[in-house]
Amino acid sequence: MREPLSALGSAETIGGLAVEGFFAISGYLIASSYLSSHSLRKFMTNRMLRIYPAFLVASVVCLFVVAPIAGGDLTAVSPRGWLVEIVKTFSLGAPSVPGTFRGLAFPALDGSMWTIRYEFRCYMLVAALGLVGILERRTVALGITAALYCIVIWVVAFGSPVIPPGVIHQIVFNAIGAPFEASYLTAIFMSGVCARLYREKLNFRPSFLGAAFAIFAVAVLLLPQPFPILAAGMAGVYVLLWAAISLKSRILQSINNKYDFSYGIYLYAWPVASLIIVEGQKDHLTVGPIVLTGLTALFATFIAIPSWYLIEKPMLSLRFRHRATVRE
After folding, report:
1. Residue 73 neighbours by CB under 8 Å, 6+ apart
2. Residue 86: which residues within 8 A CB-CB, separation 6 or more?
């Protein structure tokens, strides 16, 4: 079964939209976090406690639990390869083991982890912008965001710049990432930041403008690149934030009040889904997308619950202890 948007001729995918929506909301929330922190050290400490512990544990689980089950050959990894894996893990790179999920369309050990590195770079960008005072000059932030979208258009039109292998290549890709992914994800993240900076001027109440933006975004999604990215970064961000802020629901508002399983689900959903597909293939069963989504959500949540209570929540509590110590 083909991906629905791709089947309609779009350059976008539902998975891509989910990632873009994640970065847009993250931009809004992370900008709010920085503006309320009043301290660069406090902001970065909170971000690292939120991202690193669960990521490191998920990487270990993928390497030593998921990989052997999924056909990965740990003995094929050389001592130098293990050193590379350690460095890659601490730099928020996705783990990999030869032979894992061989035969699948996307044989990655955890194909969703690649976004975490870009996400953390965006956190550092917010810290840098806040440090030099740009978050207090929102027109400058808006100009930077527009420039990022211009870079996206340039990369789509003329291709990514070719950087010969070597030291410069390593520096660029380790600091910034792949040019296309770095430019478009950062641009959409900055759209969320700008929405936070201009929130008193944005109308998030149900309106004709919101409906028009939604229709416009859906129509543009069917066009070739870079138009879907532009639609997601402008109309899409508005519609997403409108839904998050304007739609009042006791059920939705109660979610994540006392717990936040979202990060754990994000980290483990890919290997869980891949294992379900592999096990289905062993029994000559074809798992449909709806069933696969349901089973993945169920089992990933079961893993995310201990991740939250045993790793994420205790780590996050450290920041509150730090605040109490400072007050004393």
Report:
1. 97, 98, 99
2. none
- Give dist(CA 307, CA 53) in Å, integer: 10
User: Which pLDDT belongs to residue 327?
Assistant: 42
Determine the pLDDT at residue 311. 95
pLDDT digits (tens, 9 = 90+) for 105-132: 889 999 999 999 999 999 999 999 999 9
Is 175:245 a contact under the CB 8 Å cutoff? no
pLDDT value at position 211? Answer: 63
Domain locations in the chain as residue ranges: 4-327
Q: Are 109 and 70 in contact (CB under 8 A)?
A: yes
This prediction has a pTM of: 0.86
- pLDDT value for 160: 73
Task: Say if CB 53 and CB 311 are below 8 A apart.
Answer: yes
Give residue 304's pLDDT.
96
Query: How remote is the C-alpha of 116 from its chain's centroid?
Result: 6
Which stretches of the chain drop beneath a pLDDT of 50? 324-328
* Alpha carbon of residue 171 to chain centroid: 22
d(CA 222, CA 226): 11
Res 130: pLDDT: 93
